[in-house]
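re: ur question from earlier - yeah i can do the single chain one, its not a big deal. heres the input i used so u can compare w yours
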Amino acid sequence: YGIAQYKTVDDYYFGDYIVDDAGEMKEFDLFNGTMGVVEVVNVNENSILVKFEGFDGYIAIDSNELSNIDLAYAITIHRSQGMSIPNTLTLLDYGAFKLLSKQLLYTGMTRASKKAVVLSEHNALYTAIKTDASGLRRTFLGDFLNGNLQPIQLN
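and the output i got, formated as tokens:
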């Protein structure tokens, strides 16, 4: 958001939740959005040891790679899709009314495996419940599959 973040190993602690934010760790089959937990902070070697979801073992991240990760104590509903999180807090306000839909609310609530809390302005909750965004996807896949579109040949 225009704010330079100078991350050092000192910014991380054992048990911190982090997320791969750059997708730069493809050699480990990690991609943008992969979540992990800091297991070791090694100040002497200027690195942290992280256990990522779906990866057997630990990955050492040195100070030069810290710009590729972010703390993940709070993430967006979109980033949480496909995840199971023990406790979730879904906040809805009318300031982003174009994003409000029953699909967004459903996704936010169903990420919780133990407890889901929804805090909302009345109008935002009402709008989310009454808005069905399932037909708003703008793709040409249906037209392509029905033969109404032809692929473009690139040279």
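The chain is about 15% helix and 25% strand. not sure if urs matches, ping me
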